[in-house]
SUN domain-containing protein (Amphiprion ocellaris), 142 residues
Amino acid sequence: MSNNIPVDFMKSFRGSGTTFHTVLPDLVIETSPERRPTAELLHCGECQWVSLEFPKSVKVSELKVQFQGGFSAKTCTLEGCPKDGDSAVLSQFYPEDNNSLQSFPIQEAPAVDKVKIMFENSADFFGRIIVYSLDVLGERAS
């Protein structure tokens, strides 16, 4: 059994205290009683990103992302930042351009209070990126 707990960026809409920010000023969140909230990060441009601010420090151990095939990022960068510190790159990874849920382990990440996930180099000709699922896994830092 793993010590990893999901640090779900959508929980901010269910009262966990996690704050979610995106490059998109008019992000639409869809929810229903049958499923968890979802969001499409659909925006054109060279780099799209989401950032999360946690109520307590966390150690990120894995990032899971699901794109719509044809609208994935070719390169992703995960940055982290302690409460009063500078941002640092925690990991860079290269997703496949498909619809499957992809997992990327994060090795020996320090405790952070904020993370930023940058989606770069879209597979789409117009630079669109569509994210169906995004989970940040880890544990609370002691």
User: Anything to note?
Assistant: Confidence is low (pLDDT under 50) at residues 1-19, 23-43. The CA atoms of residues 66 and 132 lie 5 Å apart.
